[in-house]
Amino acid sequence: MDTNPTADTYFYTIDKVYSCSCMWIIENFSTRPEKNEEYIESNSFSSENIKDLKWKLYIYPNGMKSNGGSKAADLLPDDKLTLYCQVTLHQTSTTNIVIPITNSNKVCNCGLMKDFGCLLESKELSDVILRAENNKEIHAHKNILSARSSVLAAMFKNEMKEKKENCVDLSHIKFEILEQVIYYIYTDSCPKLIEMADKILPLANMYDLENLKIQCEKELITEVKIYTVTQILILAHIHSANQLKEYSIKFFKIHAADVVKTSEWKAMESYPQLLMEILSVLSSKEINSDDE
């Protein structure tokens, strides 16, 4: 099931640009007393915005290594060296803002579910009747049913009996089961899922309600026992409940000796394809045991 976050987090980046400069004039540069590999340094300079970050310039008047070449006096006007340095600093920072989801947001979510539930209960603006066992009826809305179920959408879009008569005959389905499924379509919740998962699963599969089907499978997995695994396996096989089937087969593989002794196991004779699948799993188990 989806879980609602308790807060939203937003990130944004700030890029600040700071600059500072220094002009350093060195008089009588060619006659500086420093020896080779001795340096002089400028006064420190900094940006007004970042006072604790300072820079200095260093220069070796007579070079860092002994080498020949032109003298400074031949190159510098008035034997004066002027150095200009400009420093540009980009300071990037990322800030996150956490915005808690307020109670009003949660109420809005619950309110939507409640409103759709009330709409279903009120029968207001309904345009289709779902007729269950014993002619018990549920008045519903084609748009909502179609938005949630691709099977029902196809039924109402095409020139089928249900579209023409605005009535869907589900007389083979017990009213309380249909009621739970339609309530789920409107509200995304199924109050009696725990006690009716095995009854709701076939309908969820029939009408392509994948999330409801998955919830049924998860609930039925907790019910897999020595005396229930056969019926659950058959149910999962018939209604393409793959997660439930996979779990049940793994359970059977471990407890096969006990399961085949139960009276429920006899029902497997009516499902030869499923039986062959299970026997195949047992065979692979025996092969693996021999290899070991």
Automatic annotation (TrEMBL):
Pfam families: BTB, MATH_2. Residues 126-188 form the BTB domain. This is SPOPL. InterPro entries: BTB/POZ_dom, MATH/TRAF_dom, SKP1/BTB/POZ_sf, TRAF-like. It comes from Cordylochernes scorpioides. PROSITE patterns: BTB. Gene3D superfamilies: 1.25.40.420, Apoptosis, Tumor Necrosis Factor Receptor Associated Protein 2, Chain A, Potassium Channel Kv1.1, Chain A.
